[in-house]
Amino acid sequence: MSLASFLGILFAALSQAAVLALVTLGIVLIFKTSFTTNFAQGMVGTLSAFTVTMFQINTLSVIFPHISGTMIILLSLIFGVLFGFAIGLFIDVILIRKSRYSNPLSKQMITMGIVLFLTGLIPTVFRKNIDDMPTPRPILTGKWIFNVSGTDVIVPLHNVVTIIIAIVIISVIFIMLKYTKWGLGVRATASNEKVASMMGVNTKLITALSWGIACGLGSLGAALYAPMTTSLTLGMMVFMQVNGFLAAVLGGFATFFGPIVGAILIPIITVYLYGVSDIWNVAFVYVIILIIILIKPVGIFGKRIAKKV
Amino acid sequence: MLENQKIKKNHLGRFKQSYITVSKHPYFGIVLTGFILIMIQVFGLMGLVNASTVSLLTPAIIYFIVGLGYTLLLGYAGLASLGTAGFIGLGTYIIAHMSGNLGLPTEFAVLAGIVIAILLGLVVGFISLRIEGMYLAIITLGISEILVEIFKKNVAITHGNAGYNFFKLSFLGLESKLTNSFFITYYLIVIVMVLVMIWTINLIKSPTGRAMLAMKNSTSAAQAMGISVLKYRLLAFVIATVIAIFGGMLYMLRFLNTQPGSWGIALSLNILAAVVIGGTKSMYGVMAGTFIIFALNDIVLKRMAFFQEFPNASYILNGLLIILVVMFYPGGIVRLFTDIKNWMIKLSKKIKSGWRDYHYGKDTNITE
Fold first, then answer.
1. Does B337 lie in the same domain as B211?
2. pLDDT tens digits, A17-32
3. Which of these, A52, A170, B34, B60, could form a disulfide with B294 (CB 3.0-4.6 Å)?
């Protein structure tokens, strides 16, 4: 493999990894504060991606006909993230808060109910356009071409922007987790929700904010991912959803950076194994993950937690 | 004449008595359900029921069979699995490969499928010894995704995304052809359902079922009482996997086609939803849940104008139902029936006492 094709594949994998990292961070945030795995992460993102695309084409382009396309897309991205944030808050306040102390399985079922609800809602709302939804537009349409030892490496600028946005957002979330009151609250809630609330942490607010941020991250991920897949479909985020779970389990739910490492590793390994066998590469990656988890059930960076009988 | 009447009454009484004895037997409801389901197709052959209704009901019955195995896993052994859909898909592709590609008899393919199911169940069971709870759910989801990837990519064996189609298949002399509108395999599916239901009832009441329940409530306590976690977890997974793969094979025998897209995470989640909505520990609950999730949409709702205009809107209803049941009826829909029954009994007592008071006047003389 020449260096040029190596770099080309690496950028393709990294742009997927960026989206996957955003989705995974959302899943982990929710797992930390609500002690459940959020199946709806991908579906909320899909709803946002649909909304963002429609908002761009039907609203923003009509209201501001003179602004450049990139500006409109950035505005609609911000709108999409806020929309996802609102959905997250709504889900927590209406549904999850009421069943705070029930077992994880029933909370899982609630998120599953949300998936089914959105599966019905999206085609009902966007009914006329579900089969021919407009193609989501990339943020920057150009391509970044650079020369490595005589061969050109072509990377779409949208992928570069996606990677940069993901790095910035994830860094901001990590800094917030470390230094803000919300971050402290998340860490306190994660270690013990009841004790945290006794110590004066407003766990309700913390959980609601975490849901909002998590769904915002999922929405951002989906909105950035849609131009890469070039079409909006209901199942566009299923792959990210499943891989997000696997990444979180691979890295271990105990830390925040473990799942991110998992999310970066999975697409890269998958893409490079494509050269070995294009039929078995995905299955092979899953088998590798299974074996790692069997050896270390709490994940690569996980810590074993002693359980009281 | 008076004597005659007395005898008649006695006969009636005896009949009533024996009816009560029979109807209290646990198999009564099962056999009745099977009978009704068989009658649906018989009426269909007479022209009273649409062929499409029967063919829409069939997957619900198959998923109910699979759901019974899943109940054992989730409600009794307390192990959450999201690999069910992958296993059902594997069942369909075992028949596709063995009878389609290799040309072996279908009976042999079914036997081989059961052997594969036992081996796969043992593997997943061993995994479940090391990983628990939500992690296990995600890992089984991963296994299911591996299977779906194999179905999609191995075009030479599975025909890829287009799916594998048969024109006809015969199993134990029952032949289904693509041109049929009523399939004789339907009876086989109903009979399998009845057998699995009877077997589940017996298993639940046996020491095995009790051991699994003990294991669900506390693994450590169960171990302290001498219950082998290894044995019962493996058993639970083997049973659930065998039933799932067998369900897949029944699906193939009836529908004669299979596509990788049908066996994704959505189906696993739907089966989980059916089991949870109905009530994880009740057989009839699972039946109600399966009907709501898999059949209500196609058989009932599609006839209403609103749902014809928005065919996907029924998912909204399903989603809301799951959320409402989980939040307000954690025991499942089965609880709703018992609650309504209790409420009716209460109401009838109230009416009776009200009527007595009205008829004879209120008892005011009673002192405490």
1. no
2. 999 999 999 999 999 8
3. B60
- Tell me the three-class secondary structure of A14-66, residue by residue: HHHHHHHHHHHHHHHHHHHHHCCCCCCHHHHHHHHHHHHHHHHHHHHHHHCCC
Q: Are residues B291 and B342 in the same domain?
A: no
pLDDT category of residue B367 using cuts at 50, 70 and 90 = low
Whether the pLDDT of residue A166 is over 90: the answer is: yes
Q: What is the DSSP letter of B280?
A: T
What whole-number distance in Å separates Cα of residue B42 and Cα of residue A165?
63
- Residue B293: C-alpha distances to residues A111, A214, B20 (Å): 16, 29, 33
DSSP code, position B83? -
Q: What pLDDT is stored for residue A129 in this prediction? A: 58
**Cβ–Cβ gap B138/A113 under 8 Å:** no
CATH of the domain at B202: 1.10.3470
Q: Are A33 and A186 in contact (CB under 8 A)?
A: yes
What's the CA gap between A132 and A147, in Å, rounded?
Answer: 38
Hunting for tokens 């199911």 — which residue is that?
B117
- For residue B344, pLDDT over 60 is answered with yes
Name the domain count of chain B: 2
The helix or strand, by DSSP H or E, that contains position A145, with its residue range, turns out to be: strand A143-148
Q: What is the pLDDT confidence band of residue A130, given thresholds at 50, 70 and 90?
A: low
Q: How many interface pairs between A and B have CB atoms less than 8 angstroms apart?
A: 133
Looking at the structure, tell me whether residues B349 and B272 fall in a common domain.
no
- Say whether pLDDT at B197 is over 80: yes
| Same domain membership, residue B339 and residue B283 | no
Work out whether strand B174-177 and strand B168-171 pair parallel, antiparallel, or are unpaired: antiparallel
Q: Do B330 and A242 touch (CB under 8 A)?
A: no
Which residues in chain A are contacts of B327 at CB distance < 8 A? 95, 98-99, 106, 110
Query: Can you give the pLDDT at residue B5?
Result: 54
Question: Which pLDDT score is estimated for A127?
Answer: 66
Q: Does some domain include residue B19?
A: no
Interfacial residues of B (vs A; Cβ cutoff 8 Å): 80, 127, 130-131, 133-135, 137-139, 141-143, 145-146, 149-150, 153-154, 218, 220-221, 264-265, 269, 272-273, 276, 310-323, 326-327, 330
Q: Do B271 and B195 sit in the same domain of this protein? A: yes
Round the average pLDDT of chain B to a whole number and report it.
Answer: 85
Stated length of chain A:
309
Cα angle, residue A111 at apex, residues B218 and B288 outer, rounded to 5°: 75
Whether residues B314 and B168 share a domain: the answer is: yes
Distance CA A17, CA A11 (A): 9
Compute CA B320 distance to the chain's CA centroid, rounded to the nearest angstrom.
Answer: 21
Same-domain status, B209 and B347: no
Full domain range(s) for residue B106: 40-330
Report which DSSP code applies to B175.
E
